[in-house]
Amino acid sequence: MLPETNMSPQDNYLATPSGLFFEDFTLDQELVHGVPRTITEGDSSLYVALTGSRFALNCAETVARAAGFYRTPVDNLLVFHIAFGKTVNDISLNAVANLGYAEVLFKTPVFAGDTLEVTSKVIGLKENSDGKTGIVYVHSVATNQYHQKVLCFKRWVMVHKKQGEVHLDTPIIPKMQAVIDNDEQLVPKNLDLKLWKEHYSDHQIKADDLNPGDILFHRDGITLNDSDHSMATRLYQNNARVHFDQHLMDNTAAGKRLVYGGHIISLCRALSYNGLGNGLWLGAIHGGTHANPSYAGDTIYCQSKILDVKQFNRRDDIALVRIQSLGIKNSMPDELPYLMREENGRKRYHDNLVLDLDYSVLMRR
């Protein structure tokens, strides 16, 4: 017989990592994130299955070779999501929501077999008036196995407090570049479109056909399935509980699991292929806002506005096109009285607008 004991089963439990709360962050704090990730061809195939992305440079080795690559590059948004996922366990495990991005720069192409590691630095902190949450600003950098910078980005996230006590005397809000300079954006070396064939990208619009102010509605919609958004978020090893734990979310106002905002970015980029299929290389994300939450069952549409078209490095085969991409749920753009407006110098978004993304692509001329 086992000896009798007065200990409850809980007395034997060991504490497991619970993530950082707002009070645990300090300015200039350095975080080295766990679990390096080797990206495989399987990851890229699953990404296509979950998003429907059709950009030819990331779909076919024959196309990649015709464009000067030695093999098919990994989609830059997949690289971003995997790097983002590395940061979650330290930065946003106790998040209410990821709020936005700035200065997202893709520095080095990634190929199957490359291994990513990520570090972050806390660059800002701000308490919210509710006394229960605060906003943490971080600058994250992903490197490959050769210690080359692959990606860097800034983001801000609303994080729960452990206790509702005042933590900061004054907020520290970092300044962000509104637009990344053209010369900071990468043109992959050896990129050459002389052998590109028109059918690779469905004979679509080229940069020389576009003018600032042009608007494209990308036609198709994608309805969010619980299985798809959950699997996509697991692919990125993003373990934020708001995306997976329905029992936890039962006690929230919405009562539903949040769709990872990055999945919405990928769906909008995939939808934008209808019209912008020649936007081959995602060079930078200047800024992005998750304006409203998305949930399983929502249908996402995308509309793009051309902000700028510029010649790039005196090349006659590509141009740098800056785009504002709007993700809209459960409505066509023309069904809404407005998508966004200015009030007291701040953007006000329609409830059905879920994403406002400002980015640049290298596009065929």
Main sheet attributes: strand count, strand direction, barrel closure: 12 strands, antiparallel
Radius of gyration: 22 Å
Helix and strand element order: EEHHHEEEEEEHHHHEEEEEE
- Class per helix and strand makeup: alpha+beta
- Tell me the number of helical segments per DSSP (H or I, 4 or more residues long): 7
Instruction: State the end-to-end CA separation.
Output: 81 Å
Task: Give the tally of β-strands.
Answer: 14
* Share of residues in strands: 25-35%
Q: Which ranges are low-confidence, i.e. pLDDT below 50, for 5 or more consecutive residues?
A: none
Report helical residue fraction. 10-25%
* Gross morphology: globular
* Rounded average pLDDT: 92
How does this model look, in words?
With 365 residues, the chain is α+β, with helices and mostly antiparallel strands. Helix content is 17%, strand content 31%. It has seven helices and 14 strands. The strands form two sheets. Strands 1, 2, 3, 4, 5, 6, 7, 8, 9, 10, 11 and 14 form a twelve-stranded antiparallel beta sheet that branches. It has a two-stranded antiparallel sheet with strand order 12-13. The longest helix is centred in the N-terminal third of the chain and has 16 residues. It is globular. The model has no long low-confidence stretch (mean pLDDT 92).
